[in-house]
Amino acid sequence: MARFSCFCLVLVTLLVGYTAGAEEHVARPFHGVTLRELTREEPRPLKIWIAEIDLAADGISFRVTPGNGDPNGEAPGDPNGETTRQTTLEFLQEQHAQLAINATFFGMRARNTDNTGLVVSDGQRVSPFRGDWPSINIDAQNQVAIVRGEHDTYRVTSPSSKLNLHNAITGSNQIVTDGSVTTDERKFSRALHPRTAIGYTADNRLILAVVDGRQPGVSEGMSLPELAQLMLENDCVQAVNLDGGGSTTMAIADPAARVLNTPCSKNGKGEFGTLRQNGTSLAVFARPATERETCK
What we know:
Layout: E1 10-14, E2 22-30, E3 33-40, E4 46-54, E5 61-64, E6 83-84, H1 88-95, E7 99-102, E8 112-113, E9 119-121, E10 124-127, E11 135-138, E12 144-149, E13 156-158, E14 167-170, E15 173-177, E16 180-181, H2 187-190, E17 195-201, E18 205-211, H3 224-233, E19 236-241, E20 250-253, E21 257-259, E22 265-266, E23 272-274, E24 281-285
Antiparallel strand pairs: 1-2, 2-3, 3-4, 4-18, 5-24, 6-8, 7-20, 7-24, 9-10, 11-12, 11-14, 12-13, 15-16, 15-19, 17-18, 17-19, 20-21, 22-23
């Protein structure tokens, strides 16, 4: 696993949530951004990365993967698809961003793909709402909201039809709602997988989380209820489960561009860490931290 560089690390031990203890490395590489790397022993080996973003900090902005194809989502057979798949690391580098995570579920059959749920990039409509799947929208003023809409359209039905869709991504489940866990105990939710989640706090912070999985003895993954608990531990009042599995990626450029976590896909030598080309990613732009900000 890659380690932080070019700034200080703080090692702490936590007694939080369902864990007996956790080793945590904390860094502040950018103004308004705190990164934490957690290693947990209970309830199983886990490697977790958390990015906490102060939405009011000067210089913070976002961008979702732009579209490449039919903006109305009416031609799923279109060879151009809605987006062109690329790794989250490639998107980070292409956008000259400071941080990025993978985002919406997508079809894996072709390089040009359609996405499962609402995707909007800087106001550009890319993929429409899917059923009642929850979406996260970040507007031009960095105001964040969970949004839902009319299936196969861009019509917002909640929280307000007047909401401005600006940068939006979609997940399969709203795992935290108004500060409470909102997952169930069905078989699929109990399965252990690599996970990616996004949420926000009552005091205007965006929380991005990736959990490595399918790596026996190193990081074995989380269930959806456990992921919800993780987001609650990080003060989320609302949170959504994004695409996980082999898609789970968090990348950083500080200034060297690299992937922080270890994706579960293997290369030809059987080594973990092969990057998947994802349908969408969410990029975070931030200013370098001052010397005072790098250590706590």
